[in-house]
Amino acid sequence: MAHGPAKGISRWLFTTNHKDIGTMYMWFSFAMFLLGGAFAMVIRAELFQPGMQLVEPEFFNQMTTMHGLVMVFGAIMPAFVGLANWMIPLMIGAPDMALPRMNNWSFWILPFAFLMLASTFFMEGGAPNFGWTFYAPLSTTYAPPSVTFFIFAVHIMGASSIMGSINIIATVLNMRAPGMTLMKMPLFVWTWLITAFLLVAVMPVLAGAVTMMLMDIHFGTSFFDAAGGGDPVLFQHVFWFFGHPEVYIIILPGFGVVSQVIPAFSRKPLFGYSSMVYATASIAFLSFIVWAHHMFTVGMPLAGELYFMYATMLIAVPTGVKVFNWITTMWRGSMTFETPMLFAIAFVILFTMGGFTGLMLGIAPSDIQYHDSYFVVAHFHYTMVAGAIFSLTAGIYYWLPKWTGKMYNETLGKTQFWIAFIGFNLTFFPQHFVGLAGMQRRVPDYALQFADFNMLSSIGAFMFGMSQLMLLFNVINTILAGKRAEKDKVWDGAEGLEWTVPSPAPYHTFSTPPQVK
Amino acid sequence: MLRRAKPLFHKLLGSAILMGMLGHQAVADEVERWQVNMTPGVTPVSQEIYGLHMLIFWICVAISVIVFGALAYTIYAHRRSKNREPSTFHEHLGLEIFWTAIPFLILVVMAIPATRSLIHMYDTDTEVDLDVVVTGYQWKWQYEYLGKEVSFFSNLHEDSNAARQLGSGVDVNTIPNYLLEVDRPLVVPVKQKIRFLVTANDVIHAWWVPALGIKRDAIPGFVRESWAYIEEPGIYRGVCAELCGRDHGFMPIVVQAVEQAEFNEWIAQEQAAAAELRELAAQTFTFEDLYERGEGVYNRSCAACHGAQGQGVPGAFPAIAGSAVATGPLEAHLDVVLNGVPGTAMQAFGAQLSPVDIAAVVTFQRNAFGNNMGDQVQPVDVVQQQNQ
Ligand code: HEM
Ligand SMILES: [Cu+2]
Ligand SMILES: [Cu+2]
Q: How many CB atoms lie within 10 A of CB B260?
């Protein structure tokens, strides 16, 4: 019964093993992260100085669009699915995911989606250039022909996400070890369960949006064309009905990771476990009813504007609860600051700042000035980079010894942390200033008064980019030449079933379910 | 006026200092370059927005001091080297209720003034003195003074436009108001309630003038309203804020607010010029007049794409010299210029140029750059074809 992995490439092509699939998700997402990062480097190089130096505006727009799409759908989302694949069965004491064959599919269609998306660069008219939010009619009537391939790519990504989510829901609800009640599940499992429900609910809405675009472009409908009785603003409502839950899809698993890491290095149980679960659930619920805060300038009726403002402000409450709980978890703990903990603490600080700017953006009258300026760019990078990417990095360093059975280089990890932390803030903090001073987003060139802060931003971005190569090096170096992890429970403060299996985790774990007390 | 960029070190230092004093006025001569905060602006609405912005900002600062203070303290005091024995507490209902309720109350405090400002901003109906229709085009703005028969386009200024081309060789630091200057600003009176009716011709744009506290999406097929009551004369600059294609970053807005008397004078002049144009449209011109006027129009409106010598840009913009259209039937040529070629960069100039200018530029194209048609178009012909 205990057989190892198949040999050669077929191991990876046909595998139904959650660990293999998790590994592939992680490597794929890292490749996408580097690709999206390369686009960002082009953007920051062009913005290093005022004036156009490197690329045509047309190509610049392709860069911003593809950067956003690749980072959101190619880097962050698959990375968290990879973590889920690896860790959820280990955390709930299950032998594998509930639907292993679908698991293989949900991964293997992804590379094709992104291959198709990337191939648009070589098509006539170039890659999508209408922003990752692809507002009609810029993305329909006025789009390059490659938009059709973009639409199919989005369909495939959506299918992949939905399959992945169904799998996670089925696994968490059916495969928990005896005694692992819902309210005993690790928070990472909880946040992913809730995220999976969000995904199943909103990915079809995104599919609907792009299908309506397809119909408008090729089949003569006018969903988004006023001349035929449609409405471009309808597109925005549909998109953001997907889009706002999407931002929480991106961050909730990150909340989960941090809720594992902070207790481990504080050597103290998570404070307010049940309030964390309820806060996550209420954030998820609220995320469905606030979408039009991205549309405060479209000229909604006053009542709509007021409603979306109040509802958005409410999200700050459960978000605040989470932050307070994390800090109280550290309180009177016995803390050490290994790399995962450094990233987790940075997450708490920087994500909170993203929450503050989110609250400011939620105040409709002020958002009139912030909207579509660099202030928004700063906000969502504080939430998505310092939120999602930092929590992912914390998770990678935290579980890497469990995956590989080897220790990463701590000095290099800490060095990477500091370069990433400083680089990140140097990149995005000044963007608050230029945004407030009047610089609009998605432009390849800018007025002279924004020159100094933009130069700082670019320098920071190059630093941040470099720090990610250090992460890559550290991971590869661990796999090839890392010191053996001495204990199965690598971190003395870590709790949970994943630390009861050997390091590296064998190919098959929990073939007989553990008993949870 | 504009100073040369300073050495990098100085810049880094300056920013480090400034980051520490967000919200304060910077060193006097640095204000222009190192602006870190929103403008209070010159309208009651923009000032309300600014007040609200600062209110939330300071509330966030206060909360940060408490939260990050606690975090810093615990990182310092509860390290393993200081605290070997961790506590085990992990629940406290009272605390949870406390830190749910207090933020909620703070939010209510913020929501009250925000609601008040929003209601004020939405008051686009009472006592409007002047209506201006703002229409976004790829990539310029059109302004029309309702009921005054004055309407014109506003483009990126030619100096900025030349400098911003890839490989232009022009140092953009030498261009005054680089990317924030237009050929014709929107002129409006101060101390009047001006209502802006914002719409678009092609894709979505957004008309953003920070000093007026206005950002309104320009949506093709729909008209959205906004208003301003400008308190001080001056020049206020803005940009298009919604991604609208290739030259989204190159369609600035300039609003020139003047005293009422000056505005009346200006509008009278514009009306006279418009009337003159209409009258001209009925007249017959000599070939020389048309050709000369056409050359000016061509250099202003067409040369950017079709080249100063009518040579075009191979693969992108056709040459006018020897063009089959410009040396073919007159109606077809006029049709291209009036209605554009849908789905290409060739726009419909019928909406942008006066019949006189259209007649002139078509005549010019048919007889310049070695094209030798010998024919001409009169404004009346243009009007006739337009009305068909
Ligand atoms: C306290 C919680 C938050 C609040 C109140 C909030 C509020 C807002 C608001 C009002 C906007 C629209 C701003 C504008 O376009 O004018 C916005 C934009 C955005 N937010 Fe948040 N936000 C929060 C947390 C997050 C999180 C956790 C993420 C993602 C991880 C996120 C990602 C984004 C993104 C990507 C955009 C910009 C989308 C675009 O236009 O391209 N936000 N946020
Ligand atoms: Cu949102
Ligand atoms: Cu624009």
A: 12
Could you tell me if A204 and A238 are in contact, meaning their C-beta atoms sit under 8 angstroms apart?
Answer: no
How do residues A155-191 score in pLDDT, each as one tens digit? 999 999 999 999 999 999 999 999 999 999 999 999 9
ipTM for the predicted complex? 0.92
* pLDDT digit string, tens, across residues B246-286: 999 999 999 999 999 999 999 999 999 888 888 888 889 99
Task: Let me know if A161 is a catalytic residue.
Answer: yes
CA distances from A232 to A241, B202, B346 (A): 15, 11, 24
For residue A218, the Cα-to-chain-centroid distance in whole angstroms is: 32
DSSP state of B128: -
B287 in reach of chain A (CB within 8 A):
no
* Nearest alpha-carbon partner for A410 in A491, A333, A297: A491
Cα–Cα separations (whole angstroms), residue B107 to A92, A290, A321: 38, 16, 14
- Residue B221 φ/ψ region, left for φ over 0, alpha for ψ in the -120 to 50 degree band, beta for the rest: left
- Contact criterion met (CB below 8 Å) for A195 and A253: yes
B243 interaction partners in chain A (CB closer than 8 Å): 61, 130-131, 135, 138, 441-442
A382 near A251, Cβ under 8 Å? no
The residues, any chain, with a CB within 8 Å of residue B193's CB and separated by 6 or more, are B126, B127, B128, B129, B130, B227, B228, B229
Phi then psi for residue A136, to 5 deg, are -75, 150
Give the three-state DSSP class for A314. helix
Tell me: pLDDT of A193 over 80. Answer: yes
Phi, psi of A223 (to 5 degrees): -55, -40
Query: Nearest residue CA, atom 43 of ligand 1?
Result: A358
User: Percent helix, strand, coil in chain B (nearest 5)?
Assistant: 45, 15, 40
**Which two structure tokens, joined as six digits, stand for B354?**
């006066």
Complete domains list, chain A, with CATH? 20-499 (1.20.210.10)
Domains of chain B, by residue range, sit at 44-79+91-121, 130-278, 281-386
Active site residue A240: no
Residue A7 reports pLDDT greater than 90 = no
Cβ within 8 Å of B, A 276-305: 297-299, 302, 305
* Cis preceding-peptide flag for B139 (omega within 30 of 0): yes
Residue A360 class from Cβ within 10 Å (0-12 exposed, 13-18 middle, 19+ buried)? Answer: buried
Distance CA A298, CA A234 (A): 11
Residues with CB under 5 A from ligand 3 (ion): B 205, 240, 244, 248
Helices and strands counted in chain B (H then E): 10, 10
pLDDT score for B14 = 45
Sheet holding B253-258, edge to edge: B186-189, B253-258, B234-240, B205-209, B214-218
Q: Which residues of B touch A270 (CB under 8 A)?
A: 90
- E-state strands within A294-390: none
Contact between residue A490 and residue A401 where contact means Cβ atoms under 8 Å apart:
yes
Cα B239 to middle of ligand 3, angstroms: 8
Q: Inter-chain contact B121–A368, Cβ cutoff 8 Å?
A: yes
Please state the CATH superfamily assignment of the domain spanning residues B281-386 in this structure: Cytochrome c-like domain (1.10.760.10)
Q: What does pTM read for this prediction?
A: 0.90
SS3 A509: coil
pLDDT digits over B147-161, tens only? 998 999 999 998 999
Tokens in use for A362?
């939620």
Q: Could you confirm whether domain B130-278 is CATH 3.20.20.70?
A: no
